[in-house]
From TrEMBL:
<keyword id="KW-0472">Membrane</keyword>
<feature type="transmembrane region" description="Helical">
    <location>
        <begin position="46"/>
        <end position="66"/>
    </location>
</feature>
<dbReference type="InterPro" id="IPR020144">
    <property type="entry name" value="SpoVAB"/>
</dbReference>
<feature type="transmembrane region" description="Helical">
    <location>
        <begin position="6"/>
        <end position="34"/>
    </location>
</feature>
<dbReference type="Pfam" id="PF13782">
    <property type="entry name" value="SpoVAB"/>
</dbReference>
<protein>
    <submittedName>
        <fullName>Stage V sporulation protein AB</fullName>
    </submittedName>
</protein>
<feature type="transmembrane region" description="Helical">
    <location>
        <begin position="78"/>
        <end position="104"/>
    </location>
</feature>
<keyword id="KW-1133">Transmembrane helix</keyword>
<feature type="transmembrane region" description="Helical">
    <location>
        <begin position="116"/>
        <end position="137"/>
    </location>
</feature>
<keyword id="KW-0812">Transmembrane</keyword>
Protein backbone atom coordinates (compact mmCIF):
# COMPACT_ATOMS: atom_id res chain seq x y z
CA UNK A 1 0.00 0.00 0.00
CA UNK A 2 1.40 3.35 -0.94
CA UNK A 3 1.65 6.25 1.44
CA UNK A 4 -1.04 8.15 -0.46
CA UNK A 5 -3.50 5.25 -0.17
CA UNK A 6 -2.71 4.86 3.54
CA UNK A 7 -3.22 8.58 4.15
CA UNK A 8 -6.51 8.51 2.24
CA UNK A 9 -7.66 5.47 4.22
CA UNK A 10 -6.79 7.20 7.50
CA UNK A 11 -8.63 10.35 6.41
CA UNK A 12 -11.75 8.41 5.39
CA UNK A 13 -11.70 6.37 8.60
CA UNK A 14 -11.33 9.40 10.83
CA UNK A 15 -14.02 11.30 8.91
CA UNK A 16 -16.44 8.39 9.20
CA UNK A 17 -15.72 8.00 12.90
CA UNK A 18 -16.17 11.70 13.49
CA UNK A 19 -19.50 11.68 11.63
CA UNK A 20 -20.82 8.66 13.53
CA UNK A 21 -19.59 9.99 16.88
CA UNK A 22 -21.15 13.38 16.26
CA UNK A 23 -24.40 11.71 15.25
CA UNK A 24 -24.41 9.62 18.44
CA UNK A 25 -23.80 12.64 20.63
CA UNK A 26 -26.52 14.61 18.83
CA UNK A 27 -28.91 11.66 19.16
CA UNK A 28 -28.26 11.31 22.90
CA UNK A 29 -28.55 15.07 23.36
CA UNK A 30 -31.86 15.34 21.49
CA UNK A 31 -33.32 12.44 23.47
CA UNK A 32 -32.01 13.91 26.72
CA UNK A 33 -31.18 10.45 28.06
CA UNK A 34 -28.58 11.48 30.63
CA UNK A 35 -30.57 14.27 32.32
CA UNK A 36 -33.74 12.16 32.24
CA UNK A 37 -31.92 9.20 33.79
CA UNK A 38 -30.51 11.47 36.50
CA UNK A 39 -33.97 12.92 37.13
CA UNK A 40 -35.69 9.55 37.40
CA UNK A 41 -33.04 8.04 39.68
CA UNK A 42 -32.58 11.30 41.66
CA UNK A 43 -28.81 11.23 41.08
CA UNK A 44 -28.13 14.72 39.70
CA UNK A 45 -24.90 14.83 41.69
CA UNK A 46 -23.54 11.94 39.62
CA UNK A 47 -24.42 13.25 36.16
CA UNK A 48 -20.72 13.59 35.31
CA UNK A 49 -20.30 9.88 36.03
CA UNK A 50 -23.05 9.11 33.51
CA UNK A 51 -21.33 11.24 30.89
CA UNK A 52 -17.92 9.71 31.57
CA UNK A 53 -19.31 6.19 31.41
CA UNK A 54 -20.85 6.91 27.99
CA UNK A 55 -17.54 8.27 26.70
CA UNK A 56 -15.47 5.44 28.18
CA UNK A 57 -17.92 2.85 26.82
CA UNK A 58 -17.88 4.38 23.34
CA UNK A 59 -14.07 4.54 23.25
CA UNK A 60 -13.62 1.03 24.65
CA UNK A 61 -16.08 -0.63 22.28
CA UNK A 62 -14.72 1.31 19.31
CA UNK A 63 -11.23 0.11 20.18
CA UNK A 64 -12.51 -3.43 20.67
CA UNK A 65 -14.28 -3.32 17.32
CA UNK A 66 -11.15 -2.13 15.56
CA UNK A 67 -9.09 -4.91 17.14
CA UNK A 68 -11.67 -7.53 16.09
CA UNK A 69 -11.42 -9.05 19.54
CA UNK A 70 -13.21 -12.28 20.34
CA UNK A 71 -14.50 -13.01 23.80
CA UNK A 72 -14.78 -16.60 24.97
CA UNK A 73 -17.46 -16.26 27.61
CA UNK A 74 -19.60 -18.71 29.49
CA UNK A 75 -23.18 -19.09 28.29
CA UNK A 76 -24.49 -17.65 31.57
CA UNK A 77 -22.48 -14.46 31.06
CA UNK A 78 -23.63 -14.20 27.44
CA UNK A 79 -27.26 -14.54 28.59
CA UNK A 80 -26.80 -11.75 31.14
CA UNK A 81 -25.09 -9.55 28.55
CA UNK A 82 -27.89 -10.26 26.08
CA UNK A 83 -30.51 -9.28 28.64
CA UNK A 84 -28.79 -5.98 29.39
CA UNK A 85 -28.18 -5.25 25.69
CA UNK A 86 -31.84 -5.97 24.96
CA UNK A 87 -32.97 -3.73 27.80
CA UNK A 88 -30.73 -0.95 26.49
CA UNK A 89 -32.13 -1.19 22.98
CA UNK A 90 -35.68 -1.36 24.30
CA UNK A 91 -35.22 1.64 26.57
CA UNK A 92 -33.57 3.61 23.78
CA UNK A 93 -36.47 2.82 21.45
CA UNK A 94 -38.94 3.77 24.17
CA UNK A 95 -37.12 7.06 24.77
CA UNK A 96 -37.16 7.84 21.07
CA UNK A 97 -40.85 7.01 20.87
CA UNK A 98 -41.58 9.20 23.90
CA UNK A 99 -39.65 12.16 22.53
CA UNK A 100 -41.17 12.00 19.07
CA UNK A 101 -44.70 11.29 20.38
CA UNK A 102 -45.04 8.51 17.84
CA UNK A 103 -47.81 6.56 19.54
CA UNK A 104 -50.34 9.39 20.01
CA UNK A 105 -49.85 10.50 16.41
CA UNK A 106 -50.20 6.93 15.13
CA UNK A 107 -53.28 6.35 17.27
CA UNK A 108 -54.95 9.50 15.89
CA UNK A 109 -54.16 8.56 12.29
CA UNK A 110 -55.59 5.06 12.52
CA UNK A 111 -58.50 6.20 14.74
CA UNK A 112 -57.49 4.16 17.80
CA UNK A 113 -57.07 6.89 20.42
CA UNK A 114 -59.28 5.04 22.89
CA UNK A 115 -57.34 1.81 22.28
CA UNK A 116 -53.82 3.20 22.82
CA UNK A 117 -52.96 0.54 25.42
CA UNK A 118 -53.90 -2.24 22.99
CA UNK A 119 -51.77 -0.62 20.28
CA UNK A 120 -48.80 -0.43 22.64
CA UNK A 121 -49.22 -4.04 23.78
CA UNK A 122 -49.47 -5.22 20.16
CA UNK A 123 -46.20 -3.48 19.36
CA UNK A 124 -44.44 -4.90 22.42
CA UNK A 125 -45.70 -8.44 21.87
CA UNK A 126 -44.89 -8.27 18.16
CA UNK A 127 -41.33 -7.19 18.90
CA UNK A 128 -40.92 -9.88 21.55
CA UNK A 129 -42.36 -12.69 19.43
CA UNK A 130 -40.37 -11.58 16.40
CA UNK A 131 -37.15 -11.64 18.40
CA UNK A 132 -37.94 -15.04 19.88
CA UNK A 133 -38.79 -16.43 16.44
CA UNK A 134 -35.53 -15.07 15.03
CA UNK A 135 -33.34 -16.46 17.80
CA UNK A 136 -35.09 -19.82 18.06
CA UNK A 137 -35.40 -20.62 14.35
CA UNK A 138 -32.81 -18.62 12.42
CA UNK A 139 -29.79 -18.64 14.73
CA UNK A 140 -28.20 -22.10 14.90
CA UNK A 141 -27.20 -23.49 18.27
CA UNK A 142 -23.52 -24.25 18.67
Amino acid sequence: MTILKAALLILIGLSGGLAVGTGLVAFLTVLGIVPRLAQITKTHAFIHWYQRSIIIGAVFWTWTGLREAEFCLLKDIVIIYGLFAGMFVGLLAAALTEVLNVLPILAKRIHMVDKLLWLLMAMVLGKMLGSLFHWLFFVPFS
